[in-house]
Amino acid sequence: MTTATLAPVSSSATTLPAAPIQAPALDTALSVPARDFRAALDAGLRAVDIRTQAQRSADGAVHGALALDPLDALERLTPGTASALRAASADARWLLISDDGDDAEWLAWHLRARGVAGAVFLAGGHDALRRRGLNGPLSVGELAMVADHPQ
């Protein structure tokens, strides 16, 4: 007989916003197909890569995306929490990206339940971006930095 080992439970407690949150009506799409990734960015969505640093190192970063640890993402993107990003607001438009899209979908649902109506996830996640050969845009400064470092 074998016994299963459970992963340790995080000791950090979830903080809740001070005021009650009303979930918005879901009259908008919850996901963006990978083929529409660049159009979504052009339309003002902010890419948020919620893969672990190990995943980003192994599979590549999403250029221009905000990179958050998946265990901290809900708190960091929820307005009114103790560890919320300055850009976290009910009006924020996040395009959440995980490895296969599942974790990003979960996060989009939870952010919407907390009042962030513009939270959507990338269907298929980073895996779908790689299959399509897509990535985020590089800024002029990032391109200069890459050009200054010979291979």
Model description:
The chain has a 5-stranded parallel beta sheet. Mean pLDDT is 83; it is low at 1-11. The protein is of the alpha/beta class and 151 residues long. The protein is built from 6 helices and 5 strands; from the N terminus they run βαβαβαβαβαα. The longest helix is centred in the last third of the chain and has 12 residues, at 102-113. β4 (94-97), α4 and β5 form a beta-alpha-beta unit.
Quickly list its features.
151 residues; five-stranded parallel beta sheet; alpha/beta; disordered N terminus; 5 strands; globular
* Head-to-tail CA distance between termini: 52 Å
Shape: globular
* Sequence of strands across the biggest β-sheet: 1-5-4-2-3
Helix residue percentage = 25-40%
Q: Please work out how many helical segments DSSP would assign.
A: 6
SS class: alpha/beta
Order of helices and strands: EHEHEHEHEHH
User: Mean pLDDT, as a whole number?
Assistant: 83
The gist of it:
By secondary structure, the chain is α/β, with parallel strands linked by helices. 30% of the residues lie in helices and 11% in strands.
